[in-house]
What does this fold into?
Amino acid sequence: MVVAPWIGIGEPGSFGWRVFHERHPVMIERLCSAHPFGPDVRDGLSALLRESTEGDVAPLDDDAPDHQVWAEWAADQLGRPWAETSFLFAESYFFRKLLAVTGFFAPGPWRGVDPFTPMKRAELHNDATAETLKALDELPHLDGAERDAAVVQAAVWGNQADLAFQLSTDAGGGTSGLISGSPEEFWSLFGEPGAVHLVADNAAGELAADLVLVDRLLATGRAGHVVLHVKPGPYYVSDATPTDVLEVLNHLAGLPGEAGEIGARVQNALRAGDISVRSHPFFCAPKEFSEMPRDLRAEFESAAVTIFKGDLNYRRLVGDRHWPATRPFADAVSHFPGPVAALRVLKSEVAVGLDVDVVSSLDASDEPWRTTGAHALIHTSR
Ligand SMILES: O=P(O)(O)OC[C@@]1(O)O[C@H](CO)[C@@H](O)[C@@H]1O
It folds into this structure.
């Protein structure tokens, strides 16, 4: 099989390059505005920006619990210019180093404190999220198929609310609809009730929509059990951790109307063991899912369906490479054990599984359609 070159960050003006040279400085500024970091932390964050935009990959200088596994993951990158590393490695390593600088792993007052909590909390409590959650009151007025479609569309587009992406100059804010797949295609994956694994992406509004989807999977009998996979620690600004699951769920359950009823059902399903939450270390690894460890692979082998949410998970699932956009999704995920669905807003360069006419039409437009966040897809493979 021809393997396309991986997507990098070294070409000036490329999306990956702009993420490091434009998005990350703004994100660091916002982090320093949100927290009263002392001079050491602020100097460390400035040094990280310099290293990741001008320097060579330096080893981690902390003794965190994941130090050894990161030493293995980064071993063949150390000493190389960041500009010569892959986008996937570079950004994952960037966020891991950022946590070391803010003291997430060090003994002391900031140990275990998610530096992105203020941003996540602001998004969970903003007007847009409130409006989305209020709209759940429409669900009981829909028939079964309409409710199925509405819940999947909300889960797909909930991925637009991604705080790292919102710092991007590409972000258009509009939604131009699905450019591949459909809610009906998604639901056709489900047959006899089984274990459904949902690999979540962002916290706040996206996670709320994911919990609504989880509720629908259980309520309609498509899932006998749901495993919700989240990140073991803070990652890519918005990514959901177990703490975020509790915060979003408590917020949902505290609302009036359908949102509160769904929140209560999800809380009860957790108590009954019908929903499990997992946070495997590999979900913060700078690796593609084709390289996942055996224990995680065994989990997915047991799944009736695995659902991947969001852009970064999609990149890791199909391979963060300059694939032809018409490469069949089934080929790109042939490594994956079992039926899989990807619900994703396009916010980075990689794309597969698109119809040739759709690609021609998008390429003929003058918009950078791969990175505006205006387009979304639902991909499935049995
Ligand atoms: O995975 P998500 O939250 O949907 O998107 C993550 C993201 O914002 O970060 C990466 C670049 O910074 C890209 O994958 C994408 O733009």
In short: The mean pLDDT is 95. The first strand starts at residue 178 and ends at 180. The first helix runs from residue 15 to 34.
